[in-house]
Write a structure and sequence with these properties.
By secondary structure, the protein is an alpha/beta fold. The chain folds into 2 domains: 173 residues, Spore Coat Polysaccharide Biosynthesis Protein SpsA, Chain A; 118 residues, no CATH class. The two termini are 24 Å apart. It is globular, with a radius of gyration of 19 Å.
């Protein structure tokens, strides 16, 4: 009989619709080298709507489906899954991110060190377009093309792991600290906890390859950041930041200059500079909207963007995605 003590990691996966939208991610989790030590916790509107194919999970230690009803924010569903999880480590996975087979084994081993959270290297699932490479450089550049293990200040949202007991100390506010996970990391950092990147763990993440998706995501991210940051500011202070906004793209690119250099080892990064200026300019416009008008409906849109692959990938990439899923199903 399987014991709860045999669970070394609970993998958290949020599903907004049917099983088909998360199945490829699930099959990558089920193919982990330490799958017999993994619990999969799926947060979904309902078990009936999910339509789980249980045979996909037969080699895992165990799995749970947590019914959360309809939800607008990923943090709400993720919090329910975290509360139900039974493992000492929480591995966060998105429906558009696909871990390599050693991912869980490496992350679990890394917790022998003094870390509150550990992340993998992020690879681009669809690096064929200028937009997808530029969007990843801006959004995930801190974790791309790294080859050496290192202590790190920030972890990639929804694609990292944490000690469950440290996360659960925020149980009363779990929905908020998990949307986005920056809130969780800030609180842990204040307590003196540390984070780590282990390049032996890798996950391939679908990037925005459509300009409409990348632009909307950058605008929404900027608006949410500014609205949260300026909640208690005076109007005069907000106006100063709005007037200074033309400088934001150049400041942003300066801050990620090391990412350009490292990224260039994998992709011709400096060709991305014009698109990077455009997208960071859109972030600045989003910040202006956040300072002047608050978050608006950005939270709702960003939740859709996180969960609906069709919003971010082009038709050719969706076909590639479905072909890979069909291949995995045929092999199982």
């Amino acid at each position: 009989m399987k014991s709860q003590s045999d669970i070394k990691m609970s993998v958290i996966l949020v599903c907004h619709d049917t099983y088909d939208t998360i199945r490829l991610a699930v099959m990558h989790i089920a193919a982990q080298t330490v799958r017999e030590s993994l619990e999969l916790v799926i947060a979904a509107p309902s078990r009936k709507r999910l339509g789980l194919v249980e045979s996909d999970l037969k080699n895992l230690h165990s799995y749970q489906v947590v019914e959360v009803g309809e939800f607008l924010h990923r943090g709400t569903a993720a919090a329910a899954a975290v509360r139900a999880a039974r493992g000492p480590i929480l591995g966060m996975v998105e429906n558009h991110a696909f871990p390599d087979p050693q991912w869980a084994e490496v992350l679990i081993e890394a917790y022998k060190g003094p870390w509150a959270g550990v992340c993998p290297v992020i690879e681009i699932f669809n690096p064929q377009t200028l937009i997808s490479r530029t969007e990843r450089l801006i959004d995930y550049g801190n974790w791309i093309a790294r080859t050496e293990a290192a202590e790190i200040d920030r972890l990639p949202w929804h694609n990292s792991s944490y000690k469950r007991d440290l996360v659960m100390q925020f149980d009363d506010d779990l929905e908020n600290v998990l949307e986005p996970e920056d809130h969780l990391q800030d609180r842990l950092r204040v307590q003196g906890h540390r984070f780590y990147l282990d390049p032996r763990a890798r996950t391939r993440h679908i990037s925005d390859s459509k300009f409409s998706a990348a632009g909307s995501a950058m605008f929404g991210r900027g608006r949410l950041f500014a609205a949260s940051r300026s909640k208690n500011w005076s109007f005069a202070r907000k106006l100063v930041y709005v007037l200074a906004s033309p400088l934001f793209p150049f400041i942003q690119l300066y801050l990620i200059r090391e990412n350009f250099a490292r990224f260039h080892n994998r992709y011709p990064a400096y060709r991305l500079l014009p698109m990077a200026l455009l997208l960071t300019g859109i972030i600045a416009l989003g910040e202006c909207a956040g300072y002047l008008a608050g978050a608006g409906d950005s939270i709702t849109w960003m939740a859709r963007h996180e969960l609906e692959i069709e919003l971010r990938a082009n038709k050719k990439e969706i076909k590639q995605f479905k072909s890979l899923l069909a291949q995995r199903v045929a092999e199982s």
